[in-house]
Amino acid sequence: xxxxxxxxxxxxxxxxxxxxxxxxxxxxxxxxxxxxxxxxxxxxxxxxxxxxxxxxxxxxxxxxxxxxxxxxxxxxxxxxxxxxxxxxxxxxxxxxxxxxxxxxxxxxxxxxxxxxxxxxxxxxxxxxxxxxxxxxxxxxxxxx
Length: 144
Description:
The protein has 144 residues and is an alpha+beta fold. It has a single domain (7-143), classed as Roll (Thiol Ester Dehydrase, Chain A), CATH 3.10.129. The chain contains 3 helices and 8 strands, in the order E-H-H-E-E-E-E-E-E-E-H. The chain has helices at 30-46, 50-55, 130-143, and strands spanning 7-14, 58-59, 62-69, 78-88, 92-100, 106-114, 116-118, 124-125. The model has no long low-confidence stretch (mean pLDDT 95).
């Protein structure tokens, strides 16, 4: 992980049979699913889960994604995904670290960047909504 923020959540996943490819390793695209699950756990911890987001008429599309694959994982491996809040004012930046639960070795690291948009109009917002920022700052303060 490049940097761990002040607010983080950890999720675990067991690599399922349908997540592996013919080489018997986890297909790289499935890591995005693992990151997404950790990202929503972080949003829930902030108190801004999907229901709250939809009710506010705001969306947070991913506009940037960087992933570095460090080592492979296999069927039935247990992986831990750490999602860490880095930036939450003008954009939402989350860093991720995927490790093997059995030995703690790094499997992948990633970063997502999201911007805010008005769902009905599609207009981009140049700052994250004040309600989201307030909830993020309260969650960070509680984590300290």
